[in-house]
């Protein structure tokens, strides 16, 4: 099943980060997971969900590596900026779509995002939500640290945020330009949109959309991948 609508759904995949914390000598998004680059798995998940156009922001001087990894996907490569925030802004400018298109922003490091999560996020914007983010419950005990010690935090009120995050393309572009002009630093696109007064809605994410950051995350990702269907493995070999 894919997105069943006549409105365009497009995406920016942020892939301009280094692989230093993974101990890799190449950009993190090009690190292979069972023989397939993380960025390729992320882009394939978006396309399988029905996303019509994908722009990938990449580090300078690595175009050939990304072009090889994404061969056949139709993804457009755009040089990223100095940080994630700027890379997203540049990626949004690289999309060729109307202002009312649904724009997803996804981290290449969340390579195993289920297609159902992608559809859920896009469908919520299509249904009228201003900004949509996927979340999962926090399972660890959390303590708040202050100068006088620490205190337990009620984790039932907390959610861990994932990607893709989404809004209408014109609104998302404007929000990023406003944040840039105001000199505000943010950690994700939901915060960008909240800065200009947009309302954020939550939908269910999935544990498989974990972010690959450190070597142990690759081990977990390989275990998750092993539980997926043979059809998934064949799709990435073809």
UniProtKB/TrEMBL annotation:
It is an enzyme of class 2 (transferase). Its EC number is 2.7.7.60. The record marks 21, 28 as: Transition state stabilizer. The record marks 155, 211 as: Positions MEP for the nucleophilic attack. InterPro entries: IspD, IspD/TarI, IspD/TarI_cytidylyltransf_bact, Nucleotide-diphossugar_trans. It catalyses: 2-C-methyl-D-erythritol 4-phosphate + CTP + H(+) = 4-CDP-2-C-methyl-D-erythritol + diphosphate. One of its GO terms (molecular function) is 2-C-methyl-D-erythritol 4-phosphate cytidylyltransferase activity. Keywords: Isoprene biosynthesis, Nucleotidyltransferase, Transferase. HAMAP family: IspD (MF_00108). Belongs to the IspD/TarI cytidylyltransferase family. IspD subfamily. This is 2-C-methyl-D-erythritol 4-phosphate cytidylyltransferase. It comes from Tessaracoccus aquimaris. The gene is ispD.
